[in-house]
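Incident log, structure service

09:12 report received: a user says their structure output differs between two submissions of the same chain.
09:20 pulled the input from the user's history:
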Amino acid sequence: MKPFSYRCPNPKCRVVLSIPESMRGQSARCGSCSQEFMVPFVVSRTLRKDEPQSPPMRKAS
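09:34 re-ran on a clean worker, output below:
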């Protein structure tokens, strides 16, 4: 399964994370700021190319 991109919900971080499909519905932690969050089953929209980019993608732990 292909990982999907998800932006950290912490407003001070907002790093784009690479989340494995198998993590949907489970809790994860941002590798950058350690914010814990619930991985959504459905991502509401894709990240646009013209959106300001955060540092490189990191894997959620």
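09:41 both user submissions now match this output. Likely a transient worker issue. Closing.
09:42 reviewer note: The beta strands are 4-7, 16-19, 27-29, 36-38, 58-59. Residues 1-41 form one domain.
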